[in-house]
Amino acid sequence: MATEKILDVRDVSTAFKIDGHFYDAVTHVNLQIKKDEILAIVGESGCGKSTLATTIMGLHDPAETKISGEIDFEGTNLVGLPEDKYNKIRGAKIGMIFQDPLSSLNPLKRVEDQIKEVMDYHTDLSSEKKHARVIELLSQMGIVNPERTAHQFPHELSGGMRQRVVIAIAIACKPDLLIADEPTTALDVTIQAQILDVLLNIQKENHAGIVLITHDLGVVAQTADKVAVMYAGQIVEYGSTKQIFKTPKHPYTRSLLRSIPQLGGESDDLYVISGNVPSLQKMPASGDRFASRIPWIPASDHEKNPQMHEVSSGHLVRCTCYKSFYFPDQKKKKVANELN
Amino acid sequence: MWKTILRRILIMIPEIIILSIIVFLLAKAMPGDPFTGSINPRAGVAQIHHLMEVNGLYDPWYQQYWNWVVHLFHGNLGESYQYNEPVTRIIGQRAVNTLWLSLFTVVLTYLIALPMGIYAGRHEGKLPDTVIRFYTYVTYCIPFFVILVLGIWIFGYVLGWFPTTGSVSPTANGTFATIGSRFYHMLLPGILGALFGTVNIVQYLRSEVVDAKSSDYVRTARAKGVPINDIYRHHIFRNSLLPIAAFAGYSITGLLNGAIFTESVFSYPGMGLLFVNSISYRDYTVITALVLLFGILNIFGTLLSDIILSIVDPRIRIE
């Protein structure tokens, strides 16, 4: 039961149409998620995390996007699934929590009606039972006065409360898979912790698999079982949370971890990854996509067509450059080591 | 909410007082006098002075204003210099005509504009949307009176489908025939006014629908597994219609402006035509009464918009 695979993303690419051409926003991604598991997808803005999430949810306009590969959800391939069949899965079996809790709720509908709506389409419950479920969900979310909140409009609630409502909508039908797209980004730190607790509690009860999309590595270390690091549409490193945090391999992962501010660290300077994620149109056709941001590493260290390499059981890294990677301020040390 | 409405109405009182002073002074500031053109040419200057004197037109403005206000509260807006009839009676007859024409126009406007705007927004970028947008741009670019004159020429004169002047046929006998004739006379000015009035609503509604389509709450609804038609019905249309509903109160203003053009071009005996005629005759009593009436209607239109908005949008509850 605990090892049951719910979602298997195989070789999925998502391309957007810009000025008549298709550009890959997500390139050949492979992921698996099991029951009771939390998979974190990390990476900076614009690297395809949210696109991957909305691809799994099937929220893209088929006329403007091209999706290839296979998304196996409990035995159904979601790629190219017709809308009516998708609508049976969305909300019922896969719930999604969005980033901005204010704009994610319809400003003109009461909280209760917005939570009930998802039950209207996926359950045969009577109106009273739905109301009872709304109250149950809201108290499960840690809302003190659920009857009152149920009758309020989104603008009458605080950010944290709104996010709880968004989560309540996502889990109302007890989905097997929960996709949380930066659920805590718009909230302040104390509320972030509460929201994460709520998510973890839900998982204990529902045994859902959770895909947690975030750029907050602190959140990842606290909650995730597995981590996928994404850069420019590709997964560059994949492994258990312990593997990623204890023995990060890929230069991007190492740079990300190094750019976290450390209290009482040796240096006051924060490490900054120079440059930006290349835009979709400017994505290099081949070679390591991260190479341009670590220019001190010679081109010969990168693979021409970077592949995933298994460095230890279940720990995968893209490109061979991790073997010789060093940070600029470590150069002297490295040279000294080589001389010895 | 009643408190808010009551307060808004109280605020309207000083607004109306200031409006009435401005209106009164502006009418007085116009050059010319109401008698020169209308009496026997052989009558001398002394006679005109006498008439001015008798009618209190040489009194200081505040005296004249005060007399006017006192009469106003007795339901007496004075006599028209042009028609020698009480202003209330002259306006009363025409107000009914204008009211029916405006009502017909506004109903027609929304009947045309709402489906157009929604359809164009939903099928953004497709051929019908392009056609509708083309129509709105073209109509927007043509001055209203040109549309009216073209309309009269094509449908009234060339094709002869509609009457081109008046509000009722003089030969219409019996209640039924009179109502029918009145409606027939309203058709062309009403349709042309509506075609012009739809432009703003269509463009506004279209962009609201387009915005709503890509909004986060619609994405949330899709993630709930709500079929797209239901999303349009429950989320997009309602949210997009909201500003349009609030717009309804303001449309009173637009209709009165429109009435001045429509009624002049169609010689339709309503308040708009009366207004234009009164200005050329320096019929002060009628002008001040009409401008005051238009002003008060505008203030009420704004109030109506605020009330509608506070009913349909839960975010706007002024305490």
Account of the 3D structure:
The complex is a heterodimer of chains A (340) and B (319). By secondary structure, chain A is of the alpha/beta class. Chain A folds into two domains: 1-93 and 173-262 and 270-340, P-loop containing nucleotide triphosphate hydrolases (Rossmann fold), CATH 3.40.50; 110-172, no CATH class. Chain A is 32% helix and 24% strand. Chain A is built from eleven helices and twelve strands. An eight-stranded mixed beta sheet of chain A has the order 6-7-8-3-9-10-12-11, with helices on both faces. In chain A, helix 3 (111-122) runs parallel beside helix 6 (159-171). Chain A is globular and about 65 Å long. Chain A starts with a strand and ends with a helix. Chain B is an all-alpha fold. Chain B has two domains: 2-73, no CATH class; 87-312, MetI-like (MetI-like fold), CATH 1.10.3720. In chain B, helix 8 packs antiparallel against helix 9. The model of chain B has no long low-confidence stretch (mean pLDDT 82). Chain A binds chain B through residues 57, 59, 83-84, 86-92, 95-96, 98, 100, 103-108, 117-118, 121-122, 153, 155, 166, 169-170, and chain B through 215-217, 219-228, 234-235, 238-239, 242, 313-315.
Which helices and strands appear, and what pairs or packs with what?
The complex is a heterodimer of chains A (340) and B (319).
Chain A: E1 5-18, E2 21-34, E3 38-42, H1 49-57, E4 65-73, E5 76-77, H2 83-89, E6 94-97, H3 111-122, H4 127-140, H5 146-150, H6 159-171, E7 177-181, H7 189-206, E8 209-214, H8 217-223, E9 226-231, E10 234-240, H9 241-246, H10 251-258, E11 308-312, E12 315-318, H11 331-339
Parallel strand pairs in A: 3-8, 3-9, 6-7, 7-8
Antiparallel strand pairs in A: 1-2, 1-4, 4-5, 9-10, 10-12, 11-12
Helix pairs in contact in A: 3-6, 4-6, 6-7
Chain B: H1 2-29, H2 45-54, H3 61-73, H4 87-122, H5 127-141, H6 144-158, H7 174-213, H8 216-223, H9 228-266, H10 271-281, H11 284-312
